[in-house]
Amino acid sequence: MLTEPNIDRSFVEDQIKLLQRDINCIIDQDRNLRKQGLAKLQDFFKVKSNPSERIYIFDAYALKNLLRVFEDQVERNRETAINIVLNYLDLHNQHFNTETLRLIVDTIINRLNQLPFAETSEEIRLALIKLLHQIQVKHVEAYSNNLQRLAHMIGKALQDNFPEVKKDAAIFAAEISKKLPIGEYMGEAVKSLSTNMQHAHTKIRKATVDSIAPILLSRTNGTFLEIVLNNLRNLSLDKSSDVRKGTLIAVAELLMHFSIQNLNAFENNLILILMNSLSDDSKEIQNLSMQLLDQIGMKRQKLDEEANL
C-alpha cells in the first residue's frame, strides 16, 4: 500500500498539473499521442532533482497507465516504457516501494511466461530480462512473493530462439538463485538449461554452465542434477577451453556445497568428471582440475574430522 512520504507537496501538485495529460495520453487510441506522452514522461523521470517527489509521482500517478504500455502495439513505445522504469530505479538511493516493483515484475512475467511469447520483439524480450536483473540488484524482495511464476517464466525465457535472451536469462536465473529459495520450482528451467548446454554458440554453453551450480544449490530438497549430468560430462570435453573450465568450476561448487544426501547420490559421478580432466590437452585445465580436487579433498577431510568429534 502506498504510504505518504516526506515530500514537497507543492512540487508534486505543480508537476501533476503539467503531467496529468501526458499520463492519460500514454494509453490513448492515437499512437502519436501515446508517443508524445511517453517522451514527456521519460524527460521528467530522467531528471535527478527532487528524487523523492518524482518517485512518488511515478508510484501514485504514472505506474498504472505505464504498465499498460508494456502491451502497446508499437515496439518503440514498449521500449520507452522500459526505459522510464529504468529511470525510476535510478532515482532511488535505498528505499524502494516493494509493491510498485512487484507490479512491474508481474507485468514482465506476463510478457514472457508462455510460448509463443506475448512479447514478439527479440530486442524487447532481452530488455525485459535486463530489467528483471536490474530490479533484483536493487531490491530482490520484489520477487519473494511470486517465486513459482518467476521460475516458470525463466524456464520459458531459456527456450527463446534469440541467443542473447538465452544467455541473459541464464545469468539472471543464477543471480536470483543465489538470493532467494527458488530452486524447488526450477525443474523446467533446468531442463531448458540442459538443452542449452548443447547450443552451437560457445557463449550460450558458457553462460549455461556458469548458471547451473547456483540453480541446483538453491534447491534444498533433493536436486535436479540428474537432468544435466550427462551434458555436464560432455561439456567437460567441450572444444572451448572456457566452457571446460566453467564446467569444472561448476562441478567443484556442487561437490563443495551439496547436502550429504546429494553427495551420497552423485559424488562419484562428479569426482570422475574432475579426474578425467587431469588428462586434458590444456595444461591450465589439468592444473585447475588438480587444484579443485585438492580443495574438495580438504573440505571432505574437515567434515570427517568434525563428524568424529
From TrEMBL:
Matches recorded under Pfam families: TPR_DNAAF5 (PF25757)
Residue span(s) of domain Dynein axonemal assembly factor 5 TPR repeats: 25-306
InterPro entries: ARM-like, ARM-type_fold, DAAF5, TPR_DAAF5
Signal sequence residues: none
Superkingdom of the source species: Eukaryota
PANTHER family: DYNEIN ASSEMBLY FACTOR 5, AXONEMAL, DYNEIN AXONEMAL ASSEMBLY FACTOR 5
UniProt name for this protein: Dynein axonemal assembly factor 5 TPR repeats domain-containing protein
Natural source organism: Paramecium tetraurelia
Upper lineage: Eukaryota, Sar, Alveolata, Ciliophora, Intramacronucleata
